[in-house]
Specification:
Largest sheet: 3 strands, antiparallel
Structural class: mainly alpha
Radius of gyration: 18 Å
Order of helices and strands: HHEHHEEHHHHHH
Strand order of the largest sheet: 1-3-2
Low-confidence stretches: 1-22, 234-238
Distance between the termini: 41 Å
Mean pLDDT: 86
Number of helices: 10
Number of strands: 3
Length: about 240
Amino acid sequence: MRAEFFERMIEGPDAAPERPDGASVGEAVFSEIRNDILLGALHPGMKLKLASLKRDYDVSINTLRETLMRLAAEGLVLAEGQKGFRVVPASIDDLREVTELRQLIECHGLRKSMELGDLDWEGRVVSAHHMLACSERLMMQDAAKHGAEWQNFDRQFHVALISACRSRWIMRMHSVIHDQFRRYQMLALKTIGFRGEELVDEHRKILEYTVNRDVEAAVTLLAAHIQKGSELPVGTGG
């Protein structure tokens, strides 16, 4: 009963997307395709054929071209001239670079937030962790079913951790690099599965160190947590 109630609460961007009333077709299809790339429905290295996308997303070729160029600017799609478009491939080297950048940005953001954050910030962190912990319990039951929702709550927790850093650039760059990292997390779920109790314990300890303002312990554990999330077998994509 509790799990069913929790599932009904999930309205995040990683839930099955619907085109909202009043939103332009271009914005809606951009969100849908972007979501499908991040969640692995459009897998790394996949050729993005306009005819197939036109049928699957029910939009014009011109809208698709504009959408794919926007996604190329975000680093999620490759524009290959006359060859068309494809999803950016996955590779160990790319994962290593993404991981290092995420550690630099997020650990710095957490350090600043612990220095500047007030009780409202602590409340955001605690609330985000509560939702994440509920999601993790569902992941223990069925990771394949709840993976997308867990990704959403995991993101919210990590964003909450750095949300008091008072830097729009840290927040903006974190959003970009975290999305790149999420692609690899979804590959990990599909190849080696959910890390389970180890991951749950890491999140709990990060929360405890953070609200107790133990800066060095929190930052050290966060860096290790991000590193562990990158330790997975990844191919180069199709």
